[in-house]
Specification:
By secondary structure, this protein is of the alpha/beta class. It contains 17 helices and 15 strands. A five-stranded mixed beta sheet has the order 1-5-4-3-2. The protein has a five-stranded antiparallel beta sheet with strand order 7-6-10-9-8. Strands 12-13-11-14-15 form a five-stranded mixed beta sheet. It is elongated, with a radius of gyration of 39 Å.
Length: 553
């Protein structure tokens, strides 16, 4: 520990005597400073032992001494050393009384003890304390390194918590708690999620201090540090203690940050290698070789192939081509999904990768993520955390973009298609299902569609495609041109007749004309189009064409 007034008083070579403030000798001394100024306060930083001979002080004036001592105490001076036998044979009573009134320790310095000896003693104790702190820091670094190698991040956190006499927690890229030490710190760490998210918004490396004000039940002091070498932090470390960290504890925290950062970067290299294996597994599954895929997957992805899984295909499209549909899902996204959706600075596919992998890591499940040219393919357990997180994230994006379409620019937007649950033997079919769902998502103006949803709702939104509309316009143009001459309402008559399934009387009643008039109009439709309305395919094409042009109107 740093030097205190008590340690200086007990220093056998200094021969110091306490004249006031006996109860406050345990205060640390930052430095010993000599000043004969009548007002040395402007040159004080706090924590000093001030040494004087009262060369320019009227030390026998009670009022002057009260003002002098009061200013010293207000400036944070921790003690006053008075040399006797120089200007005064003993400490004047006025100074002693003023020091007692302010409870400022007053030390009598004998003539044979030079101020330099006191300064050296303070300097030596500070240096010794720093050496002890550095030595303790190196010992802590060795212990943390050992725990990181043998116990992983959990072991490192346990060792760090012991070193700082507090608690430690590790957060993933989404701000969720990954591990804590001791276990009781989990609930405390979870309450800091919002602070971790704010830390992630700052360029790395970043740090902040939370709490420690003593104004609430959680009055511990928590330091938050970002981890990783990239522009955006990949994780964060929280360290909670009852007071500010000392030098040795600071060394331990810095060592933990370095070790966890190395672990993070190593994990990225391993992740790249695992991704290459995952790509090979996916290619084998799609090629209809599930047994070979299982062999290559091994323990890394093998568990994924032992239960039903889903294939997720995601890609980005220009935001102008994504229209938020009126029939968008009404699922309420989770708070984590909303937070992730609000933080989409950068590549949407990278953001989705982070969401899916973080969810899988928290739940301890395997997930296979493969970038494939300009799209992302994910193989995840059916009903697992990764699939759920993907859906919630897309729904949160959809909800966020619903209110922001008018101000949308040229940035890319995420679109996701999900297959039905399948086994390894049906992986190729699942991939096709996911692509179909992806195509429908684009056509329906949705960001997320599961294959099971394809049969629900209406087929009419699919008619919004420009090619379908062009076909409809070309098919019905002769009828519109005929009606434009005022020679009969063939388009409306055709629509009424088809909507009544060819029932003449009902359709004629809807139009307010005689059924013979309607029969005449339908013959004119056949003549103009050169098609028979008895053909069910022709009736189907005409009905879809009418629907497509109606939606365009």
């Amino acid at each position: 520990m740093p030097p205190t007034l008590a340690s200086l008083v007990h220093h056998s070579a200094l021969k110091l005597t306490v004249r006031a403030g006996e109860d406050r000798l345990d205060v640390p001394v930052r430095w010993a400073h000599v000043s004969e100024l009548a007002d040395p306060v402007p040159y004080m930083e706090g924590g000093e032992l001030l040494l004087i001979t009262a060369l320019q002080l009227d030390a026998e004036d009670p009022e002057a001494m009260r003002r002098y001592v009061k200013r010293l105490a207000g400036a944070g001076v921790v003690g006053l050393g008075f040399a006797v036998g120089v200007n005064y044979d003993e400490i004047p009573g006025a100074l002693v009384e003023a020091a007692r009134d302010e409870e400022l320790p007053l030390l009598e310095v004998p003539r044979r003890t030079p101020f330099l000896a006191i300064s050296k003693a303070v300097s030596a104790e500070i240096a010794a304390d720093q050496y002890r702190s550095v030595t303790a820091g190196f010992a802590a670094q060795r212990e943390l390194t050992k725990q990181a190698l043998t116990g992983g991040p959990e072991g490192l956190l346990a060792a760090l918590a012991s070193q700082v006499d507090g608690w430690a927690a590790l957060y993933d890229a989404s701000g969720a708690v990954v591990a804590t030490a001791p276990e009781w710190a989990g609930r405390r760490a979870a309450r800091l999620t919002a602070d971790v998210e704010r830390l992630r918004e700052r360029p790395a490396p970043a740090s902040s201090v939370v709490g420690g004000s003593g104004t609430s039940d959680n009055d511990d002091r928590v330091e938050l540090h970002s981890l990783g070498t990239g522009r955006r932090p990949r994780s964060a470390l929280a360290v909670g203690t009852a007071a500010a960290l000392g030098t040795a504890e600071r060394y331990a925290v810095h060592s933990a940050i370095a070790l966890l950062t190395l672990t993070t970067e190593r994990s990225r290299s391993l992740q790249a290698a695992e991704q290459r294996i995952g790509a090979a597994v996916l290619r084998m599954l799609l090629a209809g070789e599930p047994e070979h895929a299982r062999t290559v997957a091994g323990d890394l992805y093998g568990g994924l192939l032992d239960a039903p899984f889903r294939l997720i295909v995601a890609e980005t499209v220009a935001v102008s081509s994504v229209r938020i549909a009126a029939d968008a899902p009404t699922r309420v996204p989770s708070a984590a999904a909303l937070a992730a959706a609000a933080d989409i600075d950068g590549d949407p596919l990278e953001a989705l990768t982070e969401v899916v992998e973080s969810a899988a890591a928290r739940s301890g499940e395997a997930v296979l993520v493969v970038p494939e040219r300009e799209r992302l393919v994910v193989l995840a357990a059916d009903g697992g955390a990764a699939v759920t997180a993907c859906g919630e994230y897309a729904v949160a994006l959809e909800a966020a973009r619903t209110h922001d379409q008018a101000g949308a620019g040229d940035e890319d937007e995420l679109v996701v298609g999900v297959s039905a649950p399948v086994g390894p033997i049906a992986a190729a079919a699942a991939y096709k299902q996911a692509e179909q769902a992806l195509s429908v998502a684009r056509r329906r103006g949705r960001m997320y569609v599961e294959h099971e949803q394809l049969a629900s709702g209406s087929v009419l939104p699919l008619l919004a495609d420009d090619a379908v509309r062009a076909f409809a316009d070309g098919l019905l143009r002769p009828l519109y041109e005929h009606d434009a001459t005022g020679r009969g309402d063939l388009v409306a008559s055709l629509r009424a007749w088809l909507s009544r399934h060819g029932q003449w009387d009902a359709a004629a009643a809807d139009l307010g004309v005689h059924r013979h008039t309607l029969r005449y109009r339908m013959r004119r439709v056949e003549e103009i189009l050169g098609r028979s309305l008895d053909d069910p395919d022709v009736r189907m094409e005409l009905w879809l064409a009418l629907k497509a042009t109606a939606s365009a109107e």
